[in-house]
């Protein structure tokens, strides 16, 4: 202090320098908590507003917009005279409090949303209202943390480099939070536990911040700040544009590459955690390198320009690896004895393709800071401005690439655009070197300046040619990656490219050849339809077959529809969640009682371009006058509709796919039950394959929690498990064999009978002989099952861990251990009951002696 009792700049600098390593650790903790919150909030809010791309776009926009506003607003409403560490600690404490408040306020917000939600723009508006209520308060505080702490730093190259390190430390913490949430907190515990852990981290960071603030004196010592902070460095606007473009390309690339890599690795929650963690890890490494460079370089703008130029090559590298290399690596995930081995491979593959570009994006932020900083300016406003424009670019990139670029142009053109935008950012930062700097150099060389000018022109043209080459080198991803995902390299059949005409396929003599007759990258999912010369046609989504005209698949799809429609005595209104090939929905077309069929699918391309290719198998259901198509997340539609149905069938994508667990929770099944008319029926598909025993128990037990009289109808062959239909009814179920057979023999049911005959069911006895068990007999087997709820979404973590486990025989055999003939379920003449017992005996599910013993 001086003789007047004021803090000298040198004293404050020394005090600040001692606390910088501690602040770095605090930012690591802050980043860890922030990523845990992000994952938890996204899951919670998507359960309410739906998981469609529109919902995700609104969610991301509000989340990142809040951080942008926070970075801009704080330096303008909080005086620079307040101790930065104390402000930072208060922000962290506020984030922790709001995190817990959101967890408990969600049920009330859900009621608000349901009461006001509509369709079209009004629906999008209320999605935005709910997201704003939930996310704006905490994200405003999150966005303000870096500008707040910036006031503790000098606006010198050394000080700016520390800001870069803080930014990098925050990202390192985000990596830890991503992995902690994805692989432990949410896998073992639930959303509430994850929230409490994040809040505890916030509180701990706040306490340490208050302690450090109490030990560190602070004052605004720059007398010239008022005069200089309003002044802008010449050409600073170019830096702001370049870093905004950098943010746009970073998030656009993350959206694009996550979509492609999830096909290759399997779209589980673990895959998304790994991709995000590697991306953030690269940003952290790059930020540290950029911070180090910014401390010593005299030309940070030049370094920023070179970063963006190198990004053009890094983006092209990733595009090449994803389309031309990784899908052909000879990796068979089925061979792994543990899912953790596959996770290690997944991490290595993500590092191989993502890390170079992520490092360059990470380095761009501290270099941009160093490019606009100058002595006397408010560091909070500098950091807030750079952070804000970078975030604005990120918002544009994530929303535009998700909602417009990829659905309209595909991932190939999306990656080409990324290269072009990175080149534009590089040109903006290097133009002074090419023109102004070039002129200065040339003028000093006298007559030789013409040779140098020519050289500069040649170099410039060469760079343009190289960028054009990189843009052109980006190829489409192979259709085999869309159709077969992680098993593309191990396919046992020949994939034939370039032939899409069905007459050419039929003419082919090699029956094992497979052709792609349709492939597209939609707004929500990438899909394909393949066909073999032998006539097998398959619909693919999420990198695997989702439906086909194979006899075993056809049998299951029609079981879903016909069992539901026949057991319900008057199925006038039907809701089909997930269209697929349309075979399940089409199974209701022949039923004369059905007056309305609502098909709800999250991806518009499926009903529009996939189902029509299976029109023979699905009775052209999408063009039936009774059919209404709804493009929405199935859960969101049921959550918000006022309509009730006689039948609801749910045939979503596999439970291991991220987000699908929301269609298998107690709360979802309860919503479905509440939207059934008296005597209404719900049925859904469940696989025994790509699952272990815990996964199967969780799925079945969760359904039986809501439908305590539920039934399993098994699509097996001679007792060998494959998949099944879970069936539940409002109230107890009793099936009169005589009445059903009589109904099926009626003249107006001739088409129903024909539809059943096509898949091997020649009587009502054949159809009901698929009986595989019921809830009342499986209490002992279900003990210890993990129930899937909205608060834990346990199923996606169980299923995602074991998607490469093919234990369908074992899974079904465990259920058969509790098999008995259900005398309380079936009634009718002794002739029909005896016929059903014989059919069950011949099915191979139960031995004759066992059947007789349970009946005696």
Explain this structure to me?
- The protein is elongated and about 95 Å long.
- It has 31 helices and 15 strands.
- Helix 1 (9-49) runs antiparallel to helix 6 (191-215), helix 4 (120-150) crosses helix 12 and helix 12 (379-434) crosses helix 13 (436-443).
- The longest helix is centred in the middle third of the chain and has 56 residues, at 379-434.
- The strands form three sheets. It has an eight-stranded mixed β-sheet, with helices on both faces. It has a five-stranded mixed β-sheet with strand order 1-2-3-4-5.
- The chain folds into four domains: 11-220, Up-down Bundle (Growth Hormone, Chain: A), CATH 1.20.1250.20; 235-429, MFS general substrate transporter like domains (Growth Hormone, Chain: A); 479-545, no CATH class; 549-855, Vaccinia Virus protein VP39 (Rossmann fold).
- The protein is α/β, with parallel strands linked by helices and 856 residues long.
């Amino acid at each position: 202090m001086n003789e007047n009792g004021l803090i000298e700049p040198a004293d404050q600098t020394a005090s600040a320098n001692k606390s910088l390593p501690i602040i770095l650790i605090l930012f690591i903790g802050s980043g860890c908590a922030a990523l845990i919150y992000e994952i938890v909030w996204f899951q919670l809010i998507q359960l309410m507003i739906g998981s469609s791309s529109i919902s995700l776009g609104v969610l991301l926009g509000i989340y990142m917009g809040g951080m942008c506003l926070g970075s801009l607003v704080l330096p303008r409403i909080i005086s620079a005279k307040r101790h930065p560490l104390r402000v930072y600690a208060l922000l962290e404490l506020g984030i922790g409090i709001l995190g817990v408040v959101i967890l408990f306020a969600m049920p009330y917000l859900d009621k608000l949303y349901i009461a006001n939600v509509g369709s079209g723009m009004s629906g999008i508006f209320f999605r935005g209202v709910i997201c704003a209520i939930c996310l704006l308060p905490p994200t405003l505080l999150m966005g303000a943390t870096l500008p707040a702490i910036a006031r503790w730093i000098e606006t010198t190259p050394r000080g700016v480099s520390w800001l870069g390190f803080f930014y990098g430390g925050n990202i390192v913490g985000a990596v830890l939070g991503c992995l902690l949430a994805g692989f432990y907190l949410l896998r073992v515990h639930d959303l509430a536990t994850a929230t409490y852990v994040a809040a505890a981290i916030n509180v701990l960071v706040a306490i340490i911040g208050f302690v450090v603030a109490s030990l560190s004196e602070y004052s605004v010592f720059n007398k010239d700040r008022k005069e200089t902070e309003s002044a802008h460095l010449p050409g600073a606007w170019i830096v702001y544009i370049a870093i905004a473009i950098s943010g746009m390309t970073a998030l656009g690339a993350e959206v694009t590459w996550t979509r492609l890599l999830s096909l290759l690795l399997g779209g589980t929650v673990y895959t998304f955690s790994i991709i995000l963690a590697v991306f953030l890890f690269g940003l952290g490494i790059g930020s540290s390198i950029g911070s180090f460079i910014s401390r010593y370089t005299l030309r940070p703008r030049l370094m920023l320009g070179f970063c963006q130029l190198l990004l053009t090559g890094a983006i092209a590298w990733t595009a090449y690896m994803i389309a031309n290399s990784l899908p052909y690596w000879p990796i068979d995930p089925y061979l792994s004895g543990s899912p953790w081995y596959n996770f290690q491979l997944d991490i290595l593959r993500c590092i191989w393709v993502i890390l170079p570009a992520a490092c360059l994006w990470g380095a761009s932020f501290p270099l941009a800071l160093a490019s606009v900083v100058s002595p006397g300016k408010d560091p909070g406003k500098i950091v807030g401005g750079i952070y804000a424009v970078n975030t604005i670019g990120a918002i544009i990139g994530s929303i535009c690439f998700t909602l417009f670029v990829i659905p309209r142009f595909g991932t190939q053109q999306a990656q080409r655009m990324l290269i072009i935008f990175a080149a534009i950012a590089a040109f903006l930062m290097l133009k002074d070197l090419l023109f102004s700097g070039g002129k200065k150099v040339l003028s000093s060389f006298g007559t030789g300046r013409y040779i140098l000018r020519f050289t500069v022109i040649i170099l410039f043209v060469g760079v343009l040619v190289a960028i054009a080459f990189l843009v052109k080198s980006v190829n489409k991803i192979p259709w085999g990656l869309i159709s077969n995902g992680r098993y593309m390299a191990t396919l046992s059949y020949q994939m034939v490219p370039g032939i899409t005409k069905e007459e050419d396929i039929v003419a082919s003599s090699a029956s094992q050849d497979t052709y792609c007759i349709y492939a597209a990258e939609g707004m929500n999912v990438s899909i394909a339809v393949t066909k073999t010369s032998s006539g097998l046609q398959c619909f693919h989504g999420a990198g695997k077959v989702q439906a086909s005209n194979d006899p075993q698949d056809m049998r299951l799809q029609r079981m879903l529809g016909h069992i539901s429609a026949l057991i319900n005595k008057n199925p006038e209104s039907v809701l089909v969640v997930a269209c697929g090939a349309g075979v399940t929905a089409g199974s209701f077309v022949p039923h004369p009682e059905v007056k309305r069929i609502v098909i709800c699918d999250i991806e518009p391309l499926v009903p529009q371009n996939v189902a029509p290719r299976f029109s023979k198998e699905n009775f052209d259901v999408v063009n039936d006058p009774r059919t209404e198509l709804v493009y929405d997340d199935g859960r969101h539609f049921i959550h918000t509709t006022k309509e009730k149905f006689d039948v609801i069938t749910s045939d979503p994508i596999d439970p291991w796919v991220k987000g699908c667990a929301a269609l298998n929770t107690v709360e979802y099944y309860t919503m479905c039950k509440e939207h059934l008319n008296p005597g209404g029926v719900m049925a859904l598909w469940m696989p025994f394959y790509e699952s272990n025993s815990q996964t199967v128990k969780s799925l079945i037990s969760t359904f039986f929690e809501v439908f305590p009289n539920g039934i399993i109808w098994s699509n097996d062959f001679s007792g060998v498990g494959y998949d099944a239909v879970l069936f539940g009814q409002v109230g107890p179920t009793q099936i009169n064999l005589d009445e059903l057979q009589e109904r099926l023999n009626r003249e107006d049911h001739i088409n129903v009978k024909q539809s059943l005959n096509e898949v091997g069911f020649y009587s009502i006895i054949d159809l009901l002989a698929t009986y595989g068990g019921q809830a009342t007999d499986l209490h002992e087997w279900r003990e210890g099952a993990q129930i899937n709820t909205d608060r834990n979404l346990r199923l996606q973590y169980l299923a995602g861990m074991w998607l490469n486990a093919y234990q369908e025989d074992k899974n079904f055999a465990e259920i058969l251990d509790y098999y008995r003939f259900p005398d309380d379920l079936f009634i009718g003449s002794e002739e029909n009951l005896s016929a059903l017992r014989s059919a069950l005996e011949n099915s191979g599910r139960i031995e004759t002696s066992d059947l007789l013993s349970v009946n005696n």
